[in-house]
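Structure first, sequence second, as always.
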């Protein structure tokens, strides 16, 4: 009998060791892990470079209050701003804290310029921005909000891809439009570059801030540091988490100076956010991802993976409906519920995870090797061949 709350549908399997793309059970079984903590272990399990950085920091200082300077965090923020649209960074501990803080920053910005009524956030219906009270209502999903009322007000919605609906939903109270650049939980739905550019144009025209949630699709996953970089669009606020910590909990909100100015001392805080242990690991992750050719390799390997998956789809059109995604954020959409398919992959020692719309989500580490992708393809082909 477990003493844990039953809020997860857990698979009856556990691991005692992880190395790179693989996980091992205590009976010595080896699994190819293409979940990687849902896009968290960006550099694989127990990455030696990250382990060394963490151990080094463990011997120096673990935690210091944000009432003091934290040089490791100053360094990470500087590096994040140097390579991206952002000019300022506010550290948190998780994705949802980052999205919630992004909402706060957007509202506070308009408050600070005297537009106190401009405080509503426009989001995509059934998107995913985390599980706090505010963010479940931002997602607008019945499944996530059921039983958690009263409703948190301040969020409006439009449907994915519905440009006309989006325009209609904008009012003079709209402070920000917040979307995931690629909808992860929602079924690996990529927002087209053209649509992102239109969003930017509308935001400019109507004095609205653009928040792009890159918690799942950011930090190199699509072959660029941020997924929105493919479109050349510049957002105002970007929440990140998952991959930046490589397995250590980190969240952050990146923003322009214009927005950052409104976050004065006392306006927001987090006891653990920007902790020296987390910041040291974050810097080590960037050492690897910022290496020359690292992201080119992600692009090259993911193109190969996507091409091969499309070949499998063409061979099994009654089973596979669509191959979705960008880079190493991949979805195999089936024509029917995916649970049995995921179980069959697992029986063949390949770990994947579900997303909405019958999608099997595949999230290898960014430093995955070609022979590991080939191994996964072999298993996927076998499962397709034998699927009844
Ligand atoms: C796009 C997006 N935003 C926010 C979150 C919430 O992150 P966390 O689970 O770390 O709170 C997630 C988590 O999957 C996510 O995919």
């Amino acid at each position: 009998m477990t003493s844990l709350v039953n809020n997860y549908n857990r698979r009856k399997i556990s691991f005692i060791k992880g190395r790179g793309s693989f996980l091992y059970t205590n009976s010595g079984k080896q699994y190819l892990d293409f979940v990687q903590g849902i896009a968290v272990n960006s550099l694989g399990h127990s990455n030696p470079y990250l382990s060394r950085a963490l151990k080094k920091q463990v011997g120096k200082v673990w935690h210091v209050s944000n009432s003091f300077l934290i040089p490791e965090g100053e360094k990470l923020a500087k590096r994040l701003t140097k390579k991206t649209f952002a000019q300022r960074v506010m550290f948190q501990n998780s994705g949802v804290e980052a999205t919630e803080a992004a909402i706060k920053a957007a509202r506070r910005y308009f408050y600070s310029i005297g537009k106190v009524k401009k405080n509503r956030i426009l989001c995509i219906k059934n998107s995913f921005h985390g599980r706090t009270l505010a963010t479940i209502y931002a997602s607008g999903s019945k499944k996530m909000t059921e039983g958690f009322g009263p409703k948190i007000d301040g969020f409006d919605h439009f449907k994915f891809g519905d440009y006309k609906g989006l325009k209609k939903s904008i009012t003079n109270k709209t402070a920000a439009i917040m979307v995931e650049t690629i909808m992860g939980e929602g079924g690996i739905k990529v927002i087209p570059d053209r649509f992102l550019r239109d969003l930017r144009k509308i935001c400019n025209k109507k004095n609205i801030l653009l928040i792009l949630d890159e918690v799942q699709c950011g930090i190199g996953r699509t072959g660029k540091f941020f997924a929105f970089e493919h479109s050349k669009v510049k957002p105002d606020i970007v929440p990140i988490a998952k991959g930046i910590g490589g397995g250590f909990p980190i969240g952050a909100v990146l923003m322009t100076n214009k927005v950052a100015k409104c976050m004065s001392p006392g306006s927001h805080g987090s006891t653990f956010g920007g902790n020296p242990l987390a910041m040291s690991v974050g810097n080590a992750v960037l050492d690897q991802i910022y290496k020359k050719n690292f992201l080119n390799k992600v692009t090259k390997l993911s193109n190969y993976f996507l091409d091969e998956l499309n070949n499998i789809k063409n061979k099994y059109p009654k089973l596979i409906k669509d191959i979705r995604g960008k880079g190493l954020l991949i979805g195999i959409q089936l024509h029917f519920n995916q649970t049995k398919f995921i179980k069959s992959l697992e029986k063949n020692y390949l770990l994947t995870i579900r997303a909405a719309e019958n999608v099997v989500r595949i999230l290898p580490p960014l430093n995955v090797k070609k022979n590991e992708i080939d191994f996964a393809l072999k298993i996927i082909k076998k499962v397709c061949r034998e699927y009844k």
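Margin note: The CA atoms of residues 52 and 70 lie 20 Å apart.
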